[in-house]
Specification:
The complex is a heterodimer. Chain A is of the alpha/beta class. Chain A contains 13 helices and 15 strands. In chain A, strands 1, 2, 5, 6, 7, 8, 9, 10, 11, 14 and 15 form an 11-stranded mixed β-sheet that branches. In chain A, helix 11 links the parallel strand 10 and strand 11. The radius of gyration of chain B is 20 Å and the shape is globular. Classes of the chains: A alpha/beta, B alpha/beta. Chain B: It holds the Pfam family ketoacyl-synt.
Chain lengths: ~400, ~375
């Protein structure tokens, strides 16, 4: 089955679809990243009575009917609406017609933390009030994790496609993108639609609140006095194809995917592990064929919790003699869970294409224990060659993705 | 991992060990005996423990986390996690310590429906009904995150390679297999443990009941997990393991309308057989998913096999619909049957996706 392959093929990103609290669509998202816009405001999607504080980064102005042409919005949970809308945007952004994308063998992979837990929250609410006999069949049917990827297939009318949801929690976006990269690289498929999606839900807000990790007002990654995360939502979907394919159709190339690394701490259910993360970064560098000194900036997991930011910057300093600028877009977007590293990947691709480093907002004073240049508050113009995107998840699941500027001779 | 000569990663990958925690009991032998005998493993549900719409289910007999894994570390472990940890543990015990000699080069790929919907919805219920909305048990929070079973299996057994959770309804086990193969070919691991796990719970039963689309009698639900070791044939031989089956191909397709499901299955199977380089007449054994798309699935398989008359093994009828674990049990069933020749495992999901795997069973 491998004879016809000319592997490994180079893989490039040619389309971006984003649904975020700082803007829907690439143009608005890019403007938001450059301006250091914040999507944070009081949560309205569930009743927050009884919580002392309840800010989050929800998307207010998203109407699925504006974006979905084939899928029925009410048959999709909110996370699937996000993913299907982002996929449609990404294909359009890639300059690929529906006929073109349907004619190609495709992989769809969508990372998530909670999938349709928003629906599960609402179902249990009904169950508590009225009993389990009264659950809405449409909502029950749409509440499975597989829907986040199959809804993209349905919306785009794909038939020659492998669709998979990757619920590897808060690192899932990078897992999904890495999978699409491997499938293109090995010549298994001709286009990959990959990223992540999640919707704000009571369950996850409550869990983090109970752990004492929800910030009272704002998320401040790498800040001396940081107070935690804010839960956010959205989706980011990337169109990836082989370099030959992109060149043949004259596509705009945002960036090249150079490689990625995955590993598992196999240590603690929720606490990150510095040494293991450092090994994952080294793995990603080796797979991508880059050295630490090649990396021009790091898009950190940077959740804004005490533990994450100090552990993550420690791992970075373990690998880098002099760490490059290390930023987190979670100050702007909150923690969008399974979408987080997909949206960060989209931000990295835009940063490479447009020549700037997105800022870490809400910043006053850098924690000396972190000791990184987090590009405080204001975006920085920069010519970028290689960019690193970190993601960490519960259960010690690490994923590090390396993107590079596309050059015609490597 | 520091080998100076690049490893050729394009060769055949084989299943060289597998384990199951199933309604037939703990272990692959119990599963194989049950499937080969065609024994019905569903039982009457005790309606006090499992109130709900289903009178029967295929439960793993007398299974509890503490019973299977001991008291230490299982106080807050939910059922699906315990099933996964046990199934992975069975495989490791069968293979011996060599399996994890290089723990960072072993991948773990585990399928799930939506994690434990019981754990997720109980957690939200506590938030909704407690005196304060944050009166929830923080130790239970990780159970509500869908990578819990895969992550806890890695923690329990010390598996440090890529740790990935896969979801795709009835196709989950096939998607996990496809993912694991790419993980190996991409150089991210040197061997992979892959499979899926699903628990029976009152909450899952209600969601499945309301979510079912067929208008006939709802089939019973089942639970359990199956895990496989995937590695290059030569590595299996070096380690003294017998290749049980070579994985020749996986393939997936989708259909927009139900009426197109049959064609999608036929196209998918034909493409997979072509990819595998085997002819339809060579298919000796078929393990379909069954369930609500059984008619279309059988018709599509028959279309693709073009007059062939393979033997069929139908797991769902034996121990209930195990949802996300279903396709992994189908794979286990063809390994249990064995006997050489080409085996085909197929699936159709109600979300409009189909998939299949082509295996060459050891003679």
């Amino acid at each position: 089955m491998h004879e016809e392959r000319q592997s490994p093929r180079r893989v490039v990103i040619t389309g971006l679809g984003v649904v975020t609290s700082i803007g829907i669509g690439v143009t608005e998202f890019l403007a938001g990243l450059r301006a250091g816009r914040s999507g944070v405001k009081p949560i309205t999607s569930f009743d927050t009575t009884g919580f002392a504080h309840s800010n989050g980064a929800e998307i207010d102005e998203f109407d699925p009917a504006d974006w979905l042409e084939r899928a029925e919005p009410e048959e999709l949970g909110r996370a699937s609406q996000f993913s299907a809308a982002a996929a449609r945007m990404a294909v359009a952004d890639a300059g690929m017609s529906l006929d073109e994308v349907r004619a190609r063998r495709a992989l769809v992979s969508v990372g998530t933390t909670d999938a349709e837990s928003r629906d599960l929250d609402n179902l249990i609410g009904v169950q508590v009030e009225q009993g389990p006999e009264r659950l809405d069949p449409v909502v029950a049917r749409r509440s499975t994790a597989g829907r986040l990827s199959s809804s993209i297939v349905r919306e785009l009318g794909l038939t020659d496609v492998e669709a998979v949801t990757i619920p590897t929690a808060c690192a899932a976006g990078n897992y999904a993108i890495g999978y699409g990269f491997d499938a293109i690289r090995d010549g298994d498929v001709d286009v990959s639609l990959c990223g992540g999606a999640d919707a704000v839900c009571r369950k996850t807000f409550t869990g983090f609140y109970r752990l004492g990790t929800i910030a009272p007002e704002v998320c401040q990654p790498f800040e001396r006095d940081r107070k935690g995360i804010l839960t956010g939502e959205g989706a980011g979907i990337l169109v990836m194809e082989s370099l030959d394919s992109a060149l043949a159709r004259g596509a705009r190339i945002y960036a090249e995917v150079l490689g990625y690394g995955l590993n598992c701490d196999a240590n603690h259910p929720v606490a990150p592990d510095r040494d293991s993360l450092a090994r994952c970064i080294e793995l990603a560098h080796r797979n991508a064929g880059v050295k630490p000194e090649d990396v021009d900036f790091i898009s950190a997991h940077g959740t804004g919790t005490k533990a994450n930011d100090v552990t993550e910057s420690g791992a970075i300093r373990q690998v880098f003699d002099t760490p490059p600028p290390t930023i987190s877009i979670k100050g702007m977007l909150g923690h969008t869970m399974g979408a987080a590293s997909a949206l960060a990947s989209a931000a990295c691709a835009l940063a490479i294409k447009e020549g700037f480093i997105p800022p870490t907002i809400n910043h006053v004073e850098t924690d000396p224990e972190c000791g990184v240049d987090c590009v405080p508050n204001v975006a920085r113009e920069a010519q970028l060659e290689v960019v690193q995107n970190n993601a960490l998840a519960f259960a010690g699941n690490n994923a590090v993705l390396i993107l590079g500027r596309y050059r015609d001779a490597v | 991992m520091t080998a100076t000569t690049p490893v050729d990663r394009t060769g055949r990958l084989v299943f060289s060990a597998w384990s199951a925690v199933s309604p037939y009991g703990i272990g692959g032998d119990a599963f194989a005996a049950g499937v080969v005998a065609g024994r019905d493993a569903t039982t009457e549900l005790d309606q006090e423990t499992y109130p709900g719409p289903y009178p029967r289910a295929g439960l793993v007999p007398e299974f509890t986390a503490a019973g299977a894994l001991g008291r230490k570390g299982t106080r807050t472990m939910d059922r699906v996690t315990a099933i996964a940890v046990s199934a992975v543990g069975q495989l490791i015990d069968d293979c011996g310590p060599e399996l994890l000699a290089e723990p960072d080069r072993v991948g773990l790929v585990l399928g799930t429906g939506s994690g434990s919907v019981q754990s997720i919805m109980d957690f939200t219920k506590d938030s909704l009904t407690g005196a304060k909305p944050y009166h929830v048990d923080p130790a239970l929070f990780p159970n509500t995150v869908m990578n819990r079973a895969a992550g806890q299996s890695a923690i329990w057994h010390g598996i440090k390679g890529p740790n990935t959770t896969i979801a795709g309804g009835a196709l989950t086990g096939l998607l996990a297999l496809s993912y694991a193969m790419r993980l190996y070919r991409g150089g991210h691991c040197d061997r992979a443990l892959l499979g899926a796990a699903e628990e029976y719970s009152v909450q899952r039963a209600w969601l499945e009941w309301h979510g079912r689309t067929g208008d006939g009698v709802a089939p019973s639900l089942g639970e359990g997990g199956a895990v496989f070791l995937l590695e290059p044939k030569s590595d299996a031989e070096t380690a003294g393991r017998t290749a049980l089956a070579a994985v020749l191909a996986t393939r997936f397709r989708a259909f927009g309308e139900t009426v197109d499901a049959r064609k999608a299955v036929g196209d998918c199977v034909r493409a997979a057989l072509a990819q595998a380089g085997v002819s339809a007449a060579d298919v000796r054994l078929v393990a379909p998913a069954g369930g609500e798309f059984e008619t279309a699935e059988d018709a599509g398989v028959a279309d693709a096999l073009d007059g062939g008359t393979p033997e069929f093994v139908r797991c769902g009828q034996l121990f209930g619909d195990t949802s996300a674990a279903g396709a992994s049990f189908q794979l286990a069933a063809v390994l249990a049957k064995g006997g050489g020749g080409i085996a085909l495992v197929t699936g159709v999901d109600r979300d409009g996706t189909v998939g299949c795997a082509v295996l060459e069973l050891a003679g």
